[in-house]
Amino acid sequence: MQSIHIIILSILLLLVPGGVFSQTLVDKVQEHHLDNGATVLLVERHDSPTVAAYISFKVGGANESSQERGVAHLLEHMLFKGTKTLGTKDYKAEKKLLQKIKTVGQQIDVKKNHSDTDLQQLQQLRDQLVALQTEHRDLVVKDEFSKIYAENGGVGYNAYTGKDSTTYLINLPANKLELWAAIESDRLQNAVFREFYTERDVVHEERKRSYESSPHGMMYETLLATAYRVHPYGDPVIGWNSDIENLDPDQIREFFDKYYTPVNMVITLVGDFDSETTLQMVDRYFGKLNPGVPVPTVVDKEPEQNGERRAYINFAAEQQLMIAYHKPTMPHRDDYVFDILIQILSEGRTSRLYQSLVVDKKLVTDVNVFGAPGSRYDNLMVLSLTPRYSCSCTDVEDAVYEELERLKTEPLSIAELTKVRKQIMTSILRGLKGNSGLARMLTSYETLGDWHYLVDYEKNLDLITAEDVMVVAQRYLHSDNRTVVTLLRGEQK
User: Fold this and answer.
1) What is the DSSP string of 32-77?
2) What is the pLDDT of residues 45-84, one digit of tens each?
3) Which domains does the chain have, with CATH numbers?
4) Which of 108, 229, 419, 482 lies 20 to 30 Å from 14, alpha-carbon distance?
5) Worst-scoring range by mean pLDDT, 21-25, 65-69, 180-184, 194-198?
6) Strand ranges in 135-261 using DSSP code E only, listed in sequence order
């Protein structure tokens, strides 16, 4: 996932309709804390009778142990399955059947991992599970959350899980905000993880599609696993195959009950509402939830990389190249420099790598530079390039390193530095005209630490000098800190 803080919010946002003077985030964002620990961020915008509603939890793939990789991602799927009242025709009857399904499913998981298992007995259990699942379908109301929201004007109902957090979102008419509160608080109190084994198979297929059959997904996964030896940022959020195949419903429930709770929760609402009335409504629905326990800090620290790492992938696809450098994350001062470096290198047709590798040397058809895989802990600057059919990855690498060396020895001009800052801010404002963009940004930064980071961002960005850029390039963009993954067509072995 692309580092979210590459897209940063300006201090001054047009938070109200055109023609009205811009006000600062500090003036407009109302921050509240419920008694159970939940954080609530409210921003009134009355130019449209709609509200963007985000709920985010400070837990993601990086917070899983080696025994539970993939839990957060599978939970994202399971929380769309309904509650004791939504998604079921008769929960009393369904509850008994769900217990039978879990018992058989757990027996299968135990037996399939033993070499001396009676295969005929294992198949009988699998047949029994299929029969129970078929019976269970008659009690399920599919996608009831989605249907209710759609019938009431909701759009963009979705969720995403990253290394650092998990977020659920919807945009809906302002007069349906209490409906949202009723549904989402019910989901947190009464979630039913129905169709668990079916959904586990769905995630397994998602992994095949997104990583094992995708050149880019395969490269990215290999890059992270090669660049990280200790920190969980090296593991895929979706989990490895063996992880997914052995995830257990009790394990999922324990993780959910512990961490998807108010002390780890950020609720962000942006749109057409009265803040005082809305806060009372939010407290009425979410304030009664049990606080839970804070997500523990990841104590694993990636040791300094003392030599270049390389990995090669043979795959029936066009050749591709990924290069990564370890870097600090926010709020480290060097991280602001990397925001500038990423903009200079690849953002737009006037960027250095685009001009050099695409236009002048015609070595690649596409180049992209981004921060990954998360933002709570030290991360990576990743360069992703697609060489032209007739060009070698070696030639592309040489050209990339030539451009990076320029950053170490040739200071940026004042004009170029000024241009880059303006490009960053223009891109931000263009993407944050809607309620959802602002809600997402505030939610993201609050789950990472504190949304107030945004308030001083522009000032800190303006303090970065050409000398700072050179020093940071020298400090990080060298071979000992580099990981390279090359995807070659089979005949290029």
Assistant:
1) EE-TTS-EEEEEE--SSSEEEEEEEES--GGG--TTSTTHHHHHHH
2) 999 999 999 999 999 999 999 999 999 999 999 999 999 9
3) 23-286 (3.30.830.10), 309-492 (3.30.830.10)
4) 419
5) 21-25
6) 155-161, 166-173
